[in-house]
Amino acid sequence: MTSRADTEYRYHKLTWPEINDAIDANQVCIVPCGAVEQHGEHLPLDVDLVCPDGIAQGVGERHPDKVLVLPTLSYGYTGHVMDFPGTINTNYKTFIEQVLDVTRSLAYHGFKKLILLNGHGSNMPNLDLAARRTNLETDAECLLVAWWQLLSVDPDFMPNWRQSKFPGGISHACELETSLYLFLEEDGVRQDKVHDHISTLNDGNPYIWTDLLGKGPAALVSWTSTYSPQGVMGQPELATREKGEQVYTEAVKQLTGIVDFFQARPADVRRRHQRHDPTMPIPWGQRDAVADR
Q1: CA–CA separation, 11 vs 30, rounded Å?
Q2: pLDDT per residue over 19-31, tens digit each?
Q3: How many CA atoms lie within 13 A of 255 on its CB side?
Q4: Domain residue spans of the chain
Q5: CA 49/CA 30 separation, integer angstroms
């Protein structure tokens, strides 16, 4: 008998018996993770929510029997952007623990393949730690994927797509984010307020240059208002809806490839090398760590 879990990819639209069916089918859970923060004068505060959620849903719509897409985790680590009204900041500890609460719950119920799909650059170090802890402290496996990095799988895609300068043309509220938002929710773009601005960090120095698709050897992440007067870092004037459709199609294609690879990949087998069995749990460094498995 066919289960609704074979046709409904939205996690929150299933009943608990249907969740059991999805677990039996080894479906991969995708958790979009974003933030509410400024994106210049031309894009709404929800860019980092709309982009990963749109890509995740694109995969779900095409392969509902393989994936479940969870509601987007909406509040991220954005303290450096608080000079711009509307931005909502979550303490990094709170953010990491919220993500872990979700991944631990999924692992507890029986999902063993999890993907954190990120839409906010400054979430990355915190999500990296959350994914690592999920892998070490539960019996599930968790991948971290930034949606923009999906565009680097095919080495020919970005060179044939990008028109903005490198580095700096694609960073924040830029050619890339604006194009994808134009495709996903065009009515939300204030097209009369689209203006380029290359971050002043990209002044030709060889050390702290930055772009979503590449960085210098040193990082300086400070108050956004010190290197971007309007909150834009990049060249959104080059953005088009057609480019956004190309980005969407490529990202959905590559995330689907990750799902197929990850779902079929056998779980890694842990091997201890202590001569004698340890007599205490692993010293995780946090009091609320899950017991050593």
Answers
A1: 9
A2: 999 999 999 999 9
A3: 38
A4: 7-264
A5: 14
> What tokens appear for 98 in the block?
């919220």
Q: What is the chain's length?
A: 293
Please list, in sequence order, all residues whose beta carbon lies within 8 angstroms of the beta carbon of residue 180, skipping any fewer than 6 positions away.
51, 54, 244, 247, 248
β partners of residue 113: 141
CB burial string 70-91: b at 16+ within 10 A, e below? bebbbbbbbebbbebeebebbe
Q: In sequence order, what are the beta bridge partners of 215?
A: 210
CA dist 178 and 240 (Å) reads 8
Amino acid at 43: L
119 and 49 Cβ atoms separated by less than 8 Å = yes
pLDDT tens digit sequence for 224-271: 999 999 999 999 999 999 999 999 999 999 999 999 999 999 999 989
Rounded Cα distance, 163 and 140, in Å: 40
Q: How many CB atoms lie within 10 A of CB 151?
A: 21
In angstroms, the Cα distances linking 174 to 22, 30, 154 are 38, 25, 21
Q: How many CA atoms lie within 13 A of 152 on its CB side?
A: 8
Structural element, H or E, at residue 134: helix 124-137
Note whether 47 and 181 are within 8 A (CB): yes
Question: How far is residue 231's CA from residue 240's CA, in Å, rounded to a whole number?
Answer: 20
First to last CA, the chain: 36
- The Cα–Cα gap between 212 and 171 comes to 5
pTM equals: 0.94
Indicate whether 287 pLDDT > 90.
Answer: no
Pick the CATH number of 7-264 from 3.40.50.10310, 3.40.190.150, 3.30.70.2760, 3.30.390.50: 3.40.50.10310
